[in-house]
Design brief:
The complex is a heterodimer. Chain A is 36% helix and 23% strand. Chain A has an eight-stranded antiparallel β-sheet, sandwiched between helices. In chain A, strands 3-2-1-4-5 form a five-stranded parallel β-sheet, sandwiched between helices. Chain A is of the alpha+beta class. In chain A, strand 4, helix 4 and strand 5 form a beta-alpha-beta unit. Chain A is globular and about 75 Å long. Chain B is mainly beta. In chain B, strands 2-1-8-7-6-5-4-3 form an eight-stranded antiparallel β-sheet. In chain B, a hairpin with a 3-residue loop joins strand 4 and strand 5. The two termini of chain B are 35 Å apart. The chains are: A alpha+beta, B mainly beta.
């Protein structure tokens, strides 16, 4: 069945990403205009805009399954692409689409359910001989039970949300005294994020690398992998930088892990794009962590090294077409790195820094791809995620990609909010990052500062602070400040020019 | 302000930068003088031009003599002192000891999920004080000092805006 019109049930950069591919395929796109973001960038690029600004429901539209279905029917689309996020991994939503004869661009409700429930996923992986860490058999009902199981496994352990993902509802416990507090925190967060408070426990692998395999499967039972991504640069289990391939894998282990990833995907009859995540320890052992049944934020690095448009494949597969590639056709070519430039304050432990983007200038060039849903004037709101842009860099090899990345980072210009930019500028110069040996605990345990320290820059900032003080406090006529460039500038004008928060 | 003051100091807590008045747009490094220019255009907004390179600048906060400047994406906090106020400050800190109260401000707008301390709780640096939910993440707000909680101004389910005083802590010596 040929898809002619897609409703994109998402916002921001991923909505724009999907529009780009759909347009190339000659498919029309519909997007949803919300009261929270009535002038968002993605609205201008779609063929049709459904105006949902009058929606007074307390549930935001992108979390409201019934409403999305209604909008799809009203808009007359034949398919829905959920992007990533809540709707992408909700089996009920996928089923609802099927019931209403709308193509859900993603896997089957059954695969989403099985892989989305981490305790069921563990059982399936175990049954198929996929390497895994020790853990609880299923959900853990009480704090006391959690204490008993953790004693069995041995600390440290990690508590995870059964319906979770993306780092929420997750807590590491290193000693028994902390168990009850951490159990409550994880369960609370799981309830809030996934409407399911149930959690389970696994042995916590200390200092692993995070390595994940990109999967593509069709509805005829063909499944292949597109190599791995390494996402070890994380804080609070949130990925900040991803690269593909991983420096830690040789061809043999890549082949073996790739086969394991295909095996677990096959076990649930998986089709569409998906990601199988592994932890990779210092001994070179790997453990299945979870499978994400959606397109991921970091998918572009795989696209750059394989030359395959993953959104296009998702759409083709949803149309019932057979995969165009066999495993032997997949060739890894070069190296790609993605930096997530978020509105966050790296000097306050990466806390969100919402605000209005005043100026944004992203570099461009042969080896640079920018996926962003933000332009000058856009507001990074506290109730959405903090992403400003993904800076995706290509190189012939890792060294070349790092060099290109360093250059590109210096060219980014964003004003209006604090961003993760100083962190990346520091990271790209860090010897441990450069040699490729870092693990997921790198940011929290090894870094002493999250930005480059420059004495000159601090001095220039001190000068500016002093200048402002003089400007505000001293009588101008007494001072005879000698500024050639700003001589005739009245203080109120400069005040207006410099953004105040 | 008296006319005889010839200098201002920008203090970071660790470092002191002195600037002679009237303030000029050149900074001397070693034997060379470098010119600083504050500039602005539509494309870049306000920036500082220094050695032929543009640096983005923003004022995050300016309150009396306290400034937080975002310079090249990195934030720096300064207090500006005159030679006289600097002397007084040094004298006071010697006589009175350190600042006694620490206010825990909301670092971002959000909702309080859980308060883990009560009035009178003794707490050490790094221990969690409360859980604040913002941007879909639950953030543990940790204690920056050793001390005793003297005031709890928030409770679960309450929304806070940036810089709301959530807790007050008396710093122990």
């Amino acid at each position: 069945m040929k898809i002619k019109n897609i409703l994109i049930a998402n916002r921001g950069e991923i909505a724009i990403r999907i529009i780009k591919t759909a347009r190339q395929m000659g498919i029309k796109t519909s997007v949803i205009k919300t009261a929270a973001e009535p002038s968002a960038m993605y609205l201008a690029l779609a063929d049709n805009v459904y105006d949902d600004t009058e929606n007074v429901s307390e549930i935001p539209v992108f979390l409201d399954i019934e409403r999305i279905i209604k909008i799809a029917i009203d808009s007359g689309v034949d398919a829905i692409h959920p992007g990533y996020g809540f709707l992408a991994e909700n089996p009920y939503f996928a089923q609802k689409c099927a019931d209403k004869k709308i193509v859900f661009i993603g896997p089957s409700p059954d695969s989403i359910y099985k892989m989305g429930n981490k305790t069921i996923a563990r059982k399936i992986a175990l049954a198929h001989g996929i390497p895994m860490t020790m853990g609880s058999e299923g959900k853990i009902p009480t704090e006391n039970e959690a204490v008993r199981i953790a004693r069995n496994i041995g600390y440290p352990v990690i508590i995870k949300a059964a319906s979770g993902g993306g780092g929420r509802g997750m807590r590491i416990v290193t000693r028994e005294e902390d168990m009850s507090k951490m159990f409550r925190l994880a369960s609370n967060e799981a309830e809030k994020a996934f409407s399911d408070p149930s959690v389970f426990i696994e042995k916590y692998i200390e200092n692993p690398k995070h390595i994940e395999f990109q999967i593509l499967g069709d509805t005829k039972g063909n499944i292949i992998h597109l190599g791995e991504r390494e996402c070890s640069v994380q804080r609070k289990h949130q990925k900040l930088l991803e690269e593909a391939p991983s420096i830690a894998l040789n061809d043999d282990i890549r082949k073996e892990m790739g086969q394991m990833a295909v095996k677990i995907a096959s076990a649930v009859g998986y089709f569409s794009a998906g990601t199988v995540e592994f932890l990779f320890d210092s001994e070179g052992a790997y453990y299945f962590m979870e499978m994400n049944t959606r397109i991921q934020v970091e998918h572009p690095v795989t696209e750059l090294i394989t030359g395959i448009d993953l959104i296009e494949e998702q759409i083709r597969i949803a149309e019932g077409k057979e995969l165009r590639y066999r495993q032997k056709d997949i060739k890894i070519n070069g190296w790609a790195i993605e930096c997530r430039i978020n509105a966050e304050d790296v000097q306050s432990g990466f806390s969100p820094a919402p605000g209005k983007i005043e100026q944004i200038l992203m570099p461009s060039g042969e080896n640079i791809r920018v996926d962003s849903g933000v332009q000058a004037g856009s507001v990074i709101a506290a109730n959405f995620d903090s992403m400003i842009a993904k800076l995706i860099i290509y190189g012939r090899d890792r060294k070349d990609a790092l060099a290109n990345c360093k250059q590109a980072l210096d060219k980014v210009w964003i004003k209006g909010t604090k961003t993760t930019l100083p962190f990346f500028r520091m990271l790209i110069r860090n010897p441990r990052f450069i040699d490729g040996s870092i693990t997921t605990s790198f940011i929290e345990n090894e870094l002493t500062g999250y930005h480059v320290n420059s004495e000159y820059e601090e001095m220039l900032a001190a000068w500016l602070a002093t200048w402002l003080f003089v400007d505000e406090n001293l009588d101008e006529s007494n001072l005879k400040i000698n500024f050639e460039e700003t001589k005739n500038l009245s203080p109120w004008l400069l005040n207006k020019r410099i953004t105040r928060h | 302000m008296a006319k005889q003051q010839k200098k201002l100091y920008a203090l970071t807590g660790k470092k002191k930068y002195g600037f002679s008045l009237p303030l000029t747009d050149t900074i001397k490094i070693g034997k060379r003088k470098y010119k600083i220019m504050i500039k602005e255009d539509e494309k870049h907004g306000t920036y500082i031009l220094w050695k032929n390179r543009r640096y983005p600048v923003e004022i995050i906060q300016s309150r009396q003599n306290k400034f937080e400047i975002l310079f090249n994406y990195v934030s720096y906090s300064f207090t500006i002192e005159t030679p006289f106020s600097l002397k007084r400050k040094q004298y006071l800190s010697k006589e009175m000891g350190q600042v006694e109260e620490e206010k825990i401000l909301a670092p971002m707008p959000g909702k309080i999920i859980e308060v883990l301390v009560r009035e009178g709780t003794e707490i050490s640096r790094g221990e969690p004080l409360l859980i604040l939910e913002a941007m879909k993440m639950q953030n543990e707000i940790n204690c920056p000092v050793n001390g005793t909680v003297t005031s709890v101004n928030v409770k679960p389910e309450v929304s806070v805006v940036k810089d709301d005083v959530m807790l007050e802590i008396k710093i122990s010596q």
